């Protein structure tokens, strides 16, 4: 009956809503679906028995196939129900994807896709030359990513990843909901060998998106943790951690915030845009040299990130350094506002030499830090889901972990050069013309720390730096990764 067919095809809309609620982690809505889909069981059963009623071998085989897919559908529904009760996002993603796959196979076995006898081919299928996509080894497709099919009869079709199946931590195949097919009047759900799919992208759009998301994420993250950085600088310059009432109390820790945002937000936008652009360019260049023979080697992908991160951070320093020098003067108490800080850094006798020395010190500190945090974030993003997902960590919670660990390790590894650069920068206020080279100034700062505080002096503020960079990287990368996947 047409009413049965209509209800069966209506399952597709409910599955699409289910998928969106999984993406939104709307656990209240997700609790509704077990009962909703259970109500479809009589419809599945009626169609199975009435569409192929004879005792012929063909009809018996079709009934067996349809009943198998119905059984799989409801088995995965029970898995979904359990995952929702536990608020287990990876489990919900897997169960909902397998439900969609079973439903798609039921439609095909029951001949319920219109036009499928012609293969469902549509004029919208594009040549791969018309689609920009990331090399799979450089940007492995993840759940929710838009992808293009690279190999097989569906080559050139696009879709969205519903789930990635892993064996021993390695991705083996993916369930993909293909884009809407007007001839089939639906969107197919299929499994593909993982190496057959790639994330779609537009180079220009991606650069703009990275820059915008990086800028916004930096503004929010730096505003939240700025007082910790002020405390660190006060300790490194021999002052008390908490400002006195005469200095303005706790609110004085926010002195120089706008200078800090001027330093960090544009820099973050440049850093991520340039890093991701160069990472792709270097990777593709190396692949070209090697004729693609190392396309699936993870090492090559991470190796491409190192020069990309270093160059991106060095370029970003053209914006960051002037603001950081002025910001340090305010935090150290050598200037009260932007005007005084500008005068200290750029207008005093000998300031130009100390400015260049400070820039050198910052590059020595920040190029390794910037590179470390970017590579560490990608490393933890690549390898920790295998351990975090079974523990019930949501995607948002995993991003928090990736960012926190990236900031913690990168910050801790660059504490000594942070102390040297801070000493050089704060000495700008006492700048005098002399014949000292930039290297001499940096050596003098290091010697001063050694003579007054010994080896311990190089690690002053270690805890504060780690405490600062771990949460700031946690917030920054979580916001960036969330925003860049929403836009």
Q: What can you tell me about this protein's structure?
A:
- With 487 residues, the protein is of the alpha+beta class.
- It is built from 16 helices and five strands.
- It has a five-stranded antiparallel sheet, covered by helices on one side.
- Residues 118-123 have low confidence and may be disordered.
What is this structure, in a nutshell?
The protein has helices at 2-24, 27-30, 33-38, 41-51, 57-86, 89-109, 203-236, 257-289, 298-331, 338-347, 351-383, 385-388, 395-413, 415-426, 438-453, 462-486, and strands at residues 146-149, 158-167, 170-178, 189-193, 197-199. With 487 residues, it is α+β, with helices and mostly antiparallel strands. Helix 9 crosses helix 11 (351-383).
Uncertain residue segments: 118-123
Helix content: 55-70%
The helix-and-strand class reads alpha+beta
Content of β-strand? 5-15%
Counted by DSSP, the helix tally is 16
Order of helices and strands: HHHHHHEEEEEHHHHHHHHHH
How many runs of DSSP E, i.e. beta strands? 5
Main sheet: which strands, in order across? 4-3-2-1-5
Specify Rg, calculated over alpha carbons. Answer: 29 Å
Distance between the termini: 43 Å
What is the overall pLDDT average?
81
Major sheet summary line: 5 strands, antiparallel
